[in-house]
Design a protein that fits this description.
binds magnesium ion; alpha/beta; NAD binding; IsoCit/isopropylmalate_DH_CS; two-stranded antiparallel ribbon; Isopropylmalate Dehydrogenase; ten-stranded mixed β-sheet; about 40% helix; binds 1,4-dihydronicotinamide adenine dinucleotide
Length: about 325
Amino acid sequence: MYKIAVIPGDGIGKEVMEATLNILEALNIDFEFIFADAGDECKEKTGVALPDETIEIVKKADACLFGAAGETAADVIVRLRQEMDLFANLRPVKSYPGTKSLFDDLDFMIVRENTEGMYIGDEDYIKDESGNITGATAKRVITRDASERICEYAFKYAKENNRKKVTGIHKANVLKKTDGLFKEVFYEVAEKYKSEGIESEDFYVDATAMYLLTRPKSFDVIVTTNLFGDILSDEGAGLVGGLGLIPSANIGEERALFEPVHGSAPDIAGKDLANPTAMILSAIMMLEYLGEKEAANAIDKAILKVLSESKTVTGDLSGKSTTIEMSEAIKEKIEF
Ligand code: NAI
Ligand code: MG
């Protein structure tokens, strides 16, 4: 039996979570879903966006499903990543038929370092003698340990998932010390995996922003630092047709949290219009993490069928179905 912490959160987070649990409950797998509060509504009710009780539930679970939070998203998700040391952020870039994907047959994985880099929150103002703010600085931290851990994760992921190549992305020509170290560590790890048949290469992040548009099919697994990973993965989302389709995983040594990339979408919340695919694909990533590969594949195939037929899909995919109708259609297509 798997204990799954479920945080629906705000807005469409609740709707896509319901649509996803609808599918998980139909599987022949024993789940115990433990619901926990977090987000804007939780803050209104209890005074805090992320109660200690929620953190406790998540820590005791085998995995966590997270819908979306609203304005409190940073307090909720950044804190959860820290509390659970979820150092690897995985964002697949995969094209499905029947979507607004710019390319067919895209399938690569972006592995983003999730704990340091530009996101340590160490910013300062520069002030003149009278105390006027004349500028600001932000500190960027790259450590050997965190770089090794994320590069090792990316190469291991490549090996275990039949991927052939890992591309390290950096800006070592300008950020000589920080990204110089990241690049050095990347090739140390790459060397270990050479004999396993995993190729390696590295590019500057600016060139990569272009290559993602001009030759995205040349990528297999990308590994990069926090901020670059954040930006490139949104570019990846744009490549394959938008937020309603993009899942993500936050993985630590012992814990993991799965969430769609999108937010609470206040413009469509409460109208049953949200595309549940991103949340369902996040649940598929959770099933893979738990070792339930067969169930993961079965749902993935069902999604593929529903998207290809373009009949029972939501408005963002030019369809007329509701969130739950699309979830039902996917459920009906699952072959056990
Ligand atoms: P958003 O992702 O909520 O929405 C952006 C646009 O995409 C909207 O037009 C929305 O209708 C559409 N969209 C998003 N998901 C969709 C889906 N599943 N189906 C169909 N259309 C979808 O981002 P936005 O508008 O920047 O932020 C709204 C709120 O969400 C903010 O309060 C923000 O802080 C929060 N947020 C939370 C995140 C999280 O919990 N991880 C991530 C991003 C934003
Ligand atoms: Mg982002």
